[in-house]
Amino acid sequence: MPVLPSWLTEPLWDQFSALLPQRPPYHPHHPLRCHRPRISDRIVFDKLLQLPRFGCPYEAIADTTCSASTIRSRRDEWIRLGIFSQLKRIALDSYDRIVGLMLDQIAIDDSLTKAPGGEVAGRSPVDRRKQGLKRSGMTDGYGIPLGRVLAGANCHDSPLPAPTLDRLAELGPPPDEITVHLDAGYDSNKTRALLDERGLHGRIAHKGEKAPIQASRRWHVERTHAWQNAFHRLSRCYERRAVVIDAFFDLAHTIITVRRLIRRSWTTHRWDNRPRRCP
User: How many CA atoms lie within 13 A of 270 on its CB side?
Assistant: First the structure.
């Protein structure tokens, strides 16, 4: 069974391959020009889709078609070229053009996951001080991931909304009025001052009140965190370098965005390779 259905992997690969530089199958400067050909980018791309979904080591998915060292080297090459961040940006632009991002209603929330070590890991105060990773995620009013900020699990929530809101500048001109939905963990004068300084309206849950009484649109970001945790490499991160973690988050955000784009446009649009039934 494939890690993702074909109606999702094929659009991803079509756009991903368009961002890759053209390379000959054999290295042109090899003295004999008869060494083994370069492993196909499609094979490595499929392996990189399996990694975040299954959360397994590189050696576990390596086989006769592609080695673990090839997966790592090709991954680092694509990170240097900025392929993953470009892919995420194109997916967001496509969703905004076809469906439309709900940027007048955004939600921000944190999520703690396990991370045995690495550049952005810290001692978790809720997991017996084991190493963990905190991500501050931002979504639109429907739950499409717009950006995130990574920090150690021991980092307090209060410094994270500012750099998270900075991700809005990457999306172009914002709407005139934006409402930010936050949970009770952000119920402080510091957060309100930050929102007022940026001209944003805040809808913050109050401490000591039950959640159903003050329910708002922040459940969308909580659902998006659950979507991200379905990628087991993100729910328990073994990567050491921050750039690699960011690359896997960009890939996961792209998959989530394209999946929602296809499902929401299935009843309103027609295209040549449209699935016969709603995915």
Answer: 0
More confident residue, 248 or 277: 248
Is 234 found in the same domain as 111? yes
User: Which residue in this structure is represented by tokens 């060292």?
Assistant: 69
d(CA 198, CA 15): 35
Cα separation of 75 and 13, whole Å?
A: 15
In which domain, by residue range, is 3 found? Answer: 1-98+243-279
What does the pLDDT look like over 226-241, one tens digit per residue? 999 999 999 888 899 9
Residue 171 to residue 102: CA distance in whole angstroms: 12
Q: Give the separation between CA 84 and CA 48, rounded to whole angstroms.
A: 11
Crossing angle of helices 242-265 and 6-19, rounded to 10°: 130
Please name the residue ranges forming H helices in 159-270.
161-165, 189-197, 219-229, 232-235, 242-265
190 and 118, same structural domain? yes
Same domain, 216 and 143: yes
Domain co-membership, 179 together with 109: yes
> In the predicted model, what is the mean pLDDT of residues 145-157?
91
Nearest of 88, 185, 104, 197 to residue 145 by alpha carbon: 88
88 and 7 part of one domain: yes
The model's pTM is 0.91
Q: 117 to each of 27, 70, 120, 196, how far by Cα in Å?
A: 37, 23, 8, 37
Annotate 25-70 with three-state secondary structure: CCCCCCCCCCCCCCCCHHHHHHHHHHHHHHCCCHHHHCECCECHHH
Which among 234, 207, 110, 124 is positioned nearest to 161, based on CA atoms? 110
Range from 35-49, 173-187, 200-214 carrying the lowest mean pLDDT: 200-214
Structural domains of the chain, count? 2
